[in-house]
Each structure stands twice: as C-alpha cells, then as structure tokens.
Amino acid sequence: MKFPLIFPTLIILSSIFSPQSTAQDPGFRCTNPTSTTCNSLIDYKLPNTTTLSAITTLFQIRNLRSLLAANNLPITTSKDTVYNATQTLKIPFPCLCRNGTGISNHRPIYTVVPDDGLYHIAAEVFSSLVSYPQIQKVNNISDADTILVGQELWIPLPCSCDDVDGEAVMHYGYLVAAGNSVGGIAMEFNTTESTLLDLNGMGSAADLKADTIIDVPLKVCKTSLRNDSMDYPLLVPNNTYIFTANNCVRCECSAANNWILNCEPAGIQKRNGGTCPSMQCAGTSFDLGNTTSDSPCSLSRCAYGGYGNNTIYTELTQESTCPGGSGNNSSPSGNGAKGLRWSFVLAASFIGLLHLLRL
Ligand SMILES: *[C@@H]1O[C@H](CO)[C@@H](O)[C@H](O)[C@H]1NC(C)=O
Ligand SMILES: *[C@@H]1O[C@H](CO)[C@@H](O)[C@H](O)[C@H]1NC(C)=O
Ligand SMILES: *[C@@H]1O[C@H](CO)[C@@H](O)[C@H](O)[C@H]1NC(C)=O
Ligand SMILES: *[C@@H]1O[C@H](CO)[C@@H](O)[C@H](O)[C@H]1NC(C)=O
Ligand SMILES: *[C@@H]1O[C@H](CO)[C@@H](O)[C@H](O)[C@H]1NC(C)=O
Ligand SMILES: *[C@@H]1O[C@H](CO)[C@@H](O)[C@H](O)[C@H]1NC(C)=O
Ligand SMILES: *[C@@H]1O[C@H](CO)[C@@H](O)[C@H](O)[C@H]1NC(C)=O
Ligand SMILES: *[C@@H]1O[C@H](CO)[C@@H](O)[C@H](O)[C@H]1NC(C)=O
Ligand SMILES: *[C@@H]1O[C@H](CO)[C@@H](O)[C@H](O)[C@H]1NC(C)=O
Ligand SMILES: *[C@@H]1O[C@H](CO)[C@@H](O)[C@H](O)[C@H]1NC(C)=O
C-alpha cells in the first residue's frame, strides 16, 4: 500500500501550486433557494493551443454558437479556429444553487483517461477553475488516488444566481490578471469596489490575488420572461447575445437599447431539426422583435416571453424611449411587469418532437 505515502505528498504539492486549494466550497455564494438555476459565464485560460471545437466538447457547451455568442464572436467563425495557450475565452454554462453556494449544474462532465489524476484534471485540464478536493467532494470520491479510467467526473465551476443590490445580474467568474486592482475591475464592469469585496468575501482590496477567479456581477438586460419558461431567468449581459428556445430565438442586450432585451427569430436551423413555432404576438400582425412607434416617447414591441414544450411565448410591451421618463414608464422589468398582457402562441407542428426539445 503506497497510497498513504503518495497522498500526503499530493496535498502538500497542491497547496503550494493550486491557487484555490484552500477553498473547500467550490461555488460563489448563492443564497437563492436550493435548486435555483440560471445561466452563467467563466473565464478559461487555455492550457494548450486548441480549437473552438475542442473547447466546446471539453465544457459540453450545447453548440459552437453558444460559445461564439458568449465571446461576441461572429457567428460565421469556424469551429476549427485555433486559439493559443494562455489566451482566455468566456465559457457559458448552467449554474445551480445548492446549499448556499452556486456550482455548474452537472456540467461539464469529464471522463477520466489513462494516467489522469485529480490534481492534473483540476489544475491543468481546467486551468485551476476548480481545485481537486472540490472535484473530489462533489463526486463523493473518498480516496483521491482511486479514480478509474472511464469514470465520469462532474467539474463544479463556481457561479451564482443571486440578485445584486436588488437587480438580476449575470455572475461572471473573472480571471484576475497580474496588475489588476479591485477598483480597476469595478470600473471596467461598472460596479463598485464594495460590491466586489462583499460578493467575494474579501476583507480588503489587498486580498485580490492574480490567477484566481472572482465573482463579478454583470448588468443584464430587462426581460419579460414568464417564470415558468424553460430558460428563466434569461440573463444576457451588456453587449452580448444568446440563442435560446432551441435556437429558434436570438436575443441581444445593448445599453444603447435602454437595457431592454431585444429578441428576434434566429433564422437558423432549429436544434434537433424541425420547424420553429410561430412567434407572432397574438391578435396582431407583429412578429417577435417587431416594434412600432406609438408616440414620440413610446414604442410597442413584440417581446420574447420564454418558451415551453412546443410553444414560444410572446408579449406586446410598451417602452418609453425618451430619457427622463417623459413617456410611458411601463417598460418590462424582471418577471412580468404590471399592466402587461401575456399571449401565447401554440405551435401547430412537430408535436412528436416535444420531449426532445429541452434547452
Ligand atoms: C495563435 O498564434 C499564432 C502564431 O503566433 C497566430 O498566428 C494566431 O493568430 C494566434 N491565434 C489567435 C486566435 O490569436
Ligand atoms: C450542506 O451544508 C451542510 C452544512 O454545511 C452540510 O452538512 C451538508 O452536507 C451539505 N449538503 C450538501 C448536499 O452538500
Ligand atoms: C494539454 O497538453 C498536455 C500535454 O500534451 C496534456 O497533458 C493535457 O491534457 C492537455 N490539456 C488539454 C486541456 O487538452
Ligand atoms: C458518498 O459515499 C459514501 C461512501 O461510499 C456513502 O456512504 C454516501 O452515501 C455517499 N454520498 C452520496 C451523496 O452519494
Ligand atoms: C454605470 O452604472 C451607473 C449606475 O447604475 C450608471 O448611472 C452609469 O450610467 C453606468 N455607466 C455606464 C458607462 O454605463
Ligand atoms: C410565477 O409567476 C406567477 C404569476 O405571475 C406567480 O403567481 C408565481 O408565484 C410565480 N412563481 C414563482 C416561483 O416565482
Ligand atoms: C456596455 O458595453 C459598451 C460597449 O462595450 C460599453 O461602452 C459600456 O461601458 C458598457 N456598459 C456597462 C454598464 O457595462
Ligand atoms: C418583423 O419581424 C420579422 C422577423 O424578424 C421581419 O422579417 C420583419 O421585417 C419585421 N417587420 C417590421 C415591420 O419590422
Ligand atoms: C412539457 O411536457 C412534459 C412531458 O411531455 C410535461 O410533463 C410537462 O408538464 C410539459 N410542460 C408544460 C409547461 O406544458
Ligand atoms: C401611455 O400608455 C397608455 C396606455 O397604454 C396610452 O393610452 C398613452 O397614450 C401612453 N402615453 C404616452 C405618452 O405614450
């Protein structure tokens, strides 16, 4: 039995070399009720020169488009595009709040290959986004030295679904670079130093360490999503876009559009084939994303309300377009603002595909 000798050595080595090895809690603070889910983002510094396709596979990102969208890359970018070691990409992933912390929702799943070790997987394959005791803990592995080739490991990336200062945000796991300061990061993402210190449980700005991941809240666009929508709450930060409703809908967030989420038919192949459901606002001739000016300070929009089994929900909303609120102030906020009318559109086709269509 040589385990007792090797294992302590591993612990000592990893506490020297792994930046997160002291943090036993894998996730960011997430006080939402257990089982709350949302979409999240984390920086991944490439350990190797590799292709976008390989990264999509490693993190089990649903499709290349989602990776491109998270990085605001053109949709025409090839899956074979090479990124170099030490370049950073933003990885989109689903977040799960559990027991006070947020961790990736059973994704990515990594399959052990010959000569793998938990430390190698954590520190090298996943660039220390997690520590090996964290992988060990969520996978209920009692002995870190006994992992088997072919064994599937849940890699618990840190995330959160909590509101910040009463507003929905996307929690972004930002990789701290040498020379970064808390004030500088706060300024770059338009938040405050005290918010960052609080979210990350840091006593002072001097606690910031290069090459660690910190929780940065990104302001997101307001939506009119139903709370029973399969993609609720759809978090889309400034200057990015996302595909949702099985690729039928593309939503974009821009500060220039008053922080109101703009969704349109994606006009691309639906996930798993088939035809996208109707996206017209009931009782109107408006398609999803159509707007019309009602008055100098108000416009109506056929807005995205979420999706269900074979249905895309739409809602006619009114937005004030004049600064200072001289128009109607009934712009959508959070989950279904007052005075807004739900309408839903049932799809006539592809009923047989229903259970294949989960996001
Ligand atoms: C990777 O490095 C090569 C050679 O230095 C360079 O030509 C290429 O543009 C880099 N790739 C990216 C995505 O920056
Ligand atoms: C939740 O936290 C409590 C107290 O920290 C701990 O005893 C329990 O094992 C945790 N449950 C899970 C599922 O992690
Ligand atoms: C990077 O390359 C090294 C050595 O070739 C290998 O051990 C490691 O698994 C690679 N990492 C990834 C993420 O492919
Ligand atoms: C973890 O493993 C131990 C020992 O194999 C077992 O008793 C326990 O029920 C497992 N816990 C979970 C959550 O699977
Ligand atoms: C940053 O946030 C503040 C408060 O939310 C806002 O007033 C300001 O316009 C924002 N700055 C930018 C550049 O968006
Ligand atoms: C969802 O919205 C409905 C109607 O707006 C509300 O009654 C319900 O409590 C909400 N459910 C949750 C879990 O927030
Ligand atoms: C939103 O993105 C634009 C363009 O990148 C940037 O100029 C602006 O400061 C950002 N605003 C916030 C609040 O992040
Ligand atoms: C309404 O939206 C559809 C789908 O995006 C688009 O093809 C059409 O041009 C829009 N019509 C108007 C009047 O904006
Ligand atoms: C969607 O379909 C599943 C199984 O077909 C069903 O259990 C579920 O209640 C449906 N959800 C909605 C919102 O209709
Ligand atoms: C505000 O909305 C109401 C009802 O939707 C409408 O009758 C009124 O004309 C709007 N006012 C302005 C200034 O757009």
Provide a brief overview of the structure:
Keywords: Signal. The protein is of the alpha+beta class and 359 residues long.
Task: Please describe what this structure looks like.
The protein is globular and about 65 Å long. The chain has three domains: 10-159, no CATH class; 169-219, LysM domain (Membrane-bound Lytic Murein Transglycosylase D, Chain A, Roll); 220-359, no CATH class. It starts with a helix and ends in a 13-residue tail after the last strand. The strands form five sheets. Strands 1, 2, 5, 6, 9, 10 and 11 form a seven-stranded mixed β-sheet that branches. The chain has a four-stranded antiparallel β-sheet with strand order 15-16-17-18, with no helix packed on it. A three-stranded antiparallel β-sheet has the order 12-13-14. With 359 residues, the protein is of the alpha+beta class. The longest helix has 15 residues, at 3-17. The chain is built from seven helices and 18 strands. It binds 2-acetamido-2-deoxy-beta-D-glucopyranose (10 copies). Residues 108-155, 172-216 form the LysM domain. It comes from Helianthus annuus (Common sunflower). One of its GO terms (molecular function) is chitin binding. Keywords: Signal.
Number of helices: 7
Tell me the distance between the termini. Answer: 47 Å
As residue ranges, the low-confidence spans are 1-23, 326-359
Ligand kinds: 2-acetamido-2-deoxy-beta-D-glucopyranose
Helix content: 10-25%
Radius of gyration: 22 Å
pLDDT averaged over residues: 84
